[in-house]
Amino acid sequence: MTSRSPAKNSNAFKWLVTFLAAGHFALVFITGRIRWEHVAADLLLVVLAWAGAGPRRFLRGAFPLWLTGMILDSQSLWLGVRGTIHTGDLWALEKALFPAPGGMIWPEWWWHNPNTPLDLLCGFAYAAYLYEVFLVAIWFFFKKDRRFESLCWAFFVVNAIGVVIYVLYPAAPPWYVLQYGPGPANLAALPSPAGTARFDAFFDIKYFANFYSRNPNVFGAMPSLHAAYPLMMVLVLWYRGTAWRVGTILFALLVAFSAIYLTHHYILDVLAGFIAAVVAFVVVRAVFARWVSEAPQAVPVPLPSGGNTRA
């Protein structure tokens, strides 16, 4: 049995990508959710697939990023099948495990005790956490480092873990409980920038207001993907040495603190995000290690008898 030629594999990949992009575009159009970024993302996917070997090499590695965007953006389509929405139990457990002064929990305490330096520091961290992943991925690509593909797939897996938990255990964030209380879930509740609204107000912008207005799932606090992404970067860049380890760890801790300070997540959400990041990293790393070990090795070509072996 012979394997398919590289040309046939390339053509199959191009048509698969085109089919998926067209299917996604049709889905958002039919469901009335189409926005300019849908058109841009799907069009970019097709262009990269057909533009040549270089762009296609990038797309093969980065394809999981498009898949991630698709599943996160499509959350509104399956909200009807999620489990019972939890509004007060995480708050109660948080209060029992991590009590703050005055009988409060720490997201609540920070909500009542904000300060401008922390608003700015945490706002910048919350704005930059996603770009860290993309910048490192692009860096790996231009270095022709195999970690480019594994990072993109790990990013997809950690988001898939988050989405599955959002379905099985939909949970209200702290800002929701502060605004609506721990009673029955208010399905009409709108997404909120919470503490990041103070960052917007300081600079007189609507960066976070616009960002969170597109959030299709208010009840997706557990786990915190904000905390998961930077920790994954710690694991991915650990091999770079002490300076990179210290820098990525400090940034991961800052984003984790920001999630709590800005009232978007409980400490429990952050810990769950850390676990999701570790699981995704370990699973993808194991799969890629197995692929490498099972890849056919080049067979050395014997020199002709009596041939000159010198260069």
UniProtKB/TrEMBL annotation:
Phosphatidic acid phosphatase type 2/haloperoxidase domain span: 148-285
Topology in membrane: Multi-pass membrane protein
Positions of transmembrane segments: 12-30, 123-142, 151-169, 218-239, 246-264, 270-288
Record key words, sorted: Membrane, Transmembrane, Transmembrane helix
InterPro entries: Aur1/Ipt1, IPC_Synthase-Related, PAP2/HPO, PAP2/HPO_sf
Subcellular location: Membrane
First-listed, main subcellular location of the protein, grouped into a coarse class: membrane
Record's GO cellular component terms: membrane
Protein name listed in UniProt: Inositol phosphorylceramide synthase
